[in-house]
Amino acid sequence: MSFVDCIEQHASILMEGALGERLKREYHLDFDKDVALAKMIYNTDGASALKAIWQEYITIARKYNLPFLATTPTRRANRERVEKAGCDSSIILDNASFLQNIQKESDVEMYVGGLLGCKGDAYTGEGALSTKEAIEFHKWQVDLFHKANVDFLYAGIMPALPEIIGMAHVISDTGIPYIISFTIQKDGKLIDGTRISDAIQEIDSQTENKPICYMTNCVHPNILYEALSQPYNRNDVVQSRFLGIQANTSPLSYAELDNSTDLKSSEPEALAEDMIRLRTISNIKIFGGCCGTDHRHMDHIARRL
To answer: Is 290 annotated as belonging to a binding site?
Structure first.
């Protein structure tokens, strides 16, 4: 089954839970200051830890007979940061190959995504690019993922519409299916103040190959519930196009969580309950985890699905 068929035909899809926070707190690994997790595959301990965490999530997908989505840990591995880190284009190809090898060894319906991110701060929008700048800036990474033959592209925690549109233009030209994941607030808007419904309509109207769907990550499901409950997001556009969440375990805002020294978490049962509640107001089908989640949270979510 193709990735597009997976999204269109399955009612429930499991996406990976946290990687970064688990690598820090469970495995006590340090990240590169420029490309963050992307260098992990070159370190024996890092590669082993990544594989172990993904295998836990794969086991959960198998247990509950759910398709599984995983993405390369490359959100910060844009050309500018890769060069600062003393690396070259192989870091993108190698990360894709590493995860694709895990995919080949798995016995579940699994899809590998190439993860991209904004240039600036995903939580404040500071340093966001214009649409023209974004086209030039993101093309390098998008082209490499195209070369790596990933199943889909995933733009994670994107805060500002102009940069998102530029990135979408570049991805659209490749023909690779892709998901745009917004950084959103409880008022139902992106960090730059754009309503979710308006952002979806604008991106869809400006791209020849539209995103396969939209979602959010690094946010608690209760914040998303409030965001989707806003009157201007209660429409067919959002219902039909906004289909997923990778959830934080804390209901605090981005401003409260950013640079927090301790992990804000909630019990697996409570998070699963809040995740499933989203289905009372939306058609969300992709359920994954972000900061604070581990295999316990993902097991409870998958069980409820």
So the answer is: yes
Residue 47: CB partners within 8 Å, gap ≥ 6?
40, 41, 98
- The torsion angles phi and psi of 217, rounded to 5 degrees, stand at -145, 165
Is residue 173 within 8 Å of residue 145, measured between CB atoms?
Answer: no
* Structure-block tokens of residue 271: 């998070």
Q: Is there a binding annotation on residue 118?
A: no
Q: What is the dihedral of CA 88, 137, 215, 270, to 10 degrees?
A: 50
Q: Is 291 assigned to a binding site?
A: yes
What's the CATH fold of domain 3-304? Answer: TIM Barrel (3.20.20)
Q: Give the residue ranges of DSSP H helices in 106-189.
A: 131-148, 161-174
What pLDDT digit, counting tens, does each position of 250-262 carry?
887 666 655 555 5
What residue segments make up the domains of the chain, in order of their start? 3-304
How far apart (Å, rounded) are the C-alpha atoms in residues 61 and 16? 9
Residue 301 has pLDDT above 60, yes or no: yes
Q: How far apart are CA 243 and CA 240, in angstroms?
A: 7
168-214 per-position pLDDT tens digit: 999 999 999 999 999 999 999 999 999 999 999 999 999 999 999 99
Residues of the chain with pLDDT > 70, as a percent, come to 96
What pLDDT is attached to residue 266? Answer: 77
Please check whether residue 94 is in contact with residue 41, taking contact to mean a CB–CB distance below 8 angstroms. Answer: yes
* Residue 79 near residue 119 (C-beta atoms within 8 A): no
